[in-house]
Amino acid sequence: MKKKISLALSVGVLLTTLSPVQTLAKSSNTAIISSSSIDVDKYIPKIKAIFQISDDYDNFRTNKYRDEDIIELSWYITDKGEISVSIDSEGNIVRYYNWKNDMNREEKVYKFPKISKEEGEKIARDFIRKISPEIADKIELKDDYERYGIYNEHSLEGYTYIFTETENNVPISDKSINVTVDGQNGEVISYYPYGQKNLKLPNKEGIISEDEAKELYREKVGLELMYKLRGVDNNFERYLGYTITNTDKTIDAKTKDIVSTSENYMYPIYRQYLYEKGVENVSSAEENTLINSKAIISRNDASKKILDTFKLGEGYEVSTSHIEKIKEEDNYIWVVSIMRYEKDGSSSADAAVNAKTGEIIGFSDPRSWDEDDNEKVKYSKEELLKKAKEFIQKNNPEKYKETEYVEISGIDQYGYSNEYQFQFIRKSNDIKVENSGFRVVISGVTGNVVDYSYSWDDSELPLAEDIIGEDKAKEVIFDGKELELEYQGENEDKENIKLVYDFKDKHLVVDAKTGEIVDNKKELERKYGKKTYKDIENSFAKNQIEKLQENITLFEGEDFKPKSEITQKDFFKLLIQTKRMFYGWDDEDYLYEVLVRQNIVKNEEKNPDGKVTREEAMKYIVRAFGQEQSGNLGEIYRIDYNDADQIDSSLRGHVAIAKGLGIISGEGNFRPKDNLRRDEAAVLIYNILNRSN
What we know:
Layout: E1 25-27, E2 30-32, H1 44-50, E3 59-64, E4 71-77, E5 81-87, E6 93-100, H2 117-131, E7 139-142, H3 144-148, E8 158-167, E9 170-182, E10 188-194, H4 210-220, E11 224-232, E12 235-243, E13 249-252, E14 258-260, E15 279-281, H5 284-292, H6 299-309, E16 316-326, E17 332-342, E18 345-354, E19 360-364, H7 381-395, H8 397-400, E20 403-406, E21 419-428, E22 431-443, E23 449-455, H9 470-478, E24 483-490, E25 493-503, E26 509-511, E27 517-518, H10 520-528, H11 542-548, H12 568-575, H13 588-597, H14 614-624, H15 652-660, H16 678-689
Helix pairs in contact: 11-16, 14-15
């Protein structure tokens, strides 16, 4: 869903004095928005000078942000790119974006960045100094990738830096600047500041110590015993764990009071557990057999279920639907695409229905998500809560009985003032079950359900026996951990800034059986972070392997197994990342779906656990570059390898093109029929990313 963003109004390039505009006017190619107080003409020369916008950008347009007095100025060259600068009513630059038309990720094969991460940070800081000199020396870099050792999957395209503004050397959590720098040319791609201006910040006089705050936090913030999910990607298991659910609570550093300033805990209601083993396509013949045998409901029944349940009348219709099978299970899901037609266009969204039970799993109204913003709320929160309960009771009465309504602070996590969100969490043995329950979002204007999620885990849950107590769990979770001093706004009044101590490791869970810390971020690090392989010291590819780890994910485990022959799926997991695509690699079907769509592999060539010969590797690499030649033109290519006559005639062109791209050298024997080893695959991927042309 789209989310409203509160742009920073604290940045400081004040371009000129403003004059209100009452009517639509035109000056050369400049349109002035009649509903705005911003005189666009006065800003153009200075903006073009600041961002060095050349006259080659000969097309210009303006756009006004809805409900905010912010104007977006855009200069663009047809089919080449666009530079967009947004300014507020005081002339502050509140957004910048430099889009190049060569950023088509579906076609592009990336290279290693030419600038380092440290060089990119300096460029980002210099850019901030140019835009907002008054805060340039009061920002600090926030880097969770570095903190948790997880590689940045965007690093082949560029580097993204998130800076937090500080005062008195204390971070202001609600004020940050996001800057993205192109890794090839060092240009700033985007600049997004967030937060409010003119905040009244308390001083540091008379604050309590961190040690005192830690004792107060341990005393006043409790842990909750829950059935949690542990794992990465789609490999999850249930366990009993103690977790912090009142995550919004912090310690006021001046008064010692416990206050609500941090992010609220959201009980997740995702379908990830349902899709844990992945999905596979269902043939038309199999679909008909299932429907005729009454094993599943028909697509018409599934579509009607959605339209009737959510009362989608005039303007709504089902555009497409397809069925998916959960791997290794006798479970099927109808995915239904809903269209909504309006005078000025159309929009779409998907819904999902359990094909065996008819239960609705998910729905999102394809309406404009901000269309109710200016309408008057007609229903109270209590009335909408009653509607939410009635909706679930009607559609899933038995499972509703096993849930508990959980109050969510605030109105709506998406920032829509006229929508209310309600969560009902499953309980078993009087213990909440993570990722099992219902989430309902209702419009306060229409009283209609506009978003719905349902997830239920029927797997066996561990018994709450032989577990540690809450006090022991607190000792474990807080041992050696720090609280951080920050400026944070109260959740009920973000302009009321408090100086608070906050516990930043709220994601940690204590296994109630073993008493050990469970850290899913560490699990991510183990799977996707940089490895210290034990067996590459004497490998000819050692340097290439270590360089690759700065930008892509390699193999799991402590051993690289350089001499082992690589499987097709593992080779593709490496190759697809050169196109800056990153997915949960356990979803093999989706990986191949992408490869087929990208014309890198054909359906009849799929052999995930098979080996890849050296000549086949050239075929897939050349296809990734989009340079496969039509027809069998093998004989026209001159190849200087000693064993060139052993190369399949249909692949001679691929080998020659790969050599021309610098992916392989042209000396000695090519060994086309040999299976590709892991170390050789690493060198090929390195050469792709390190090419000069």
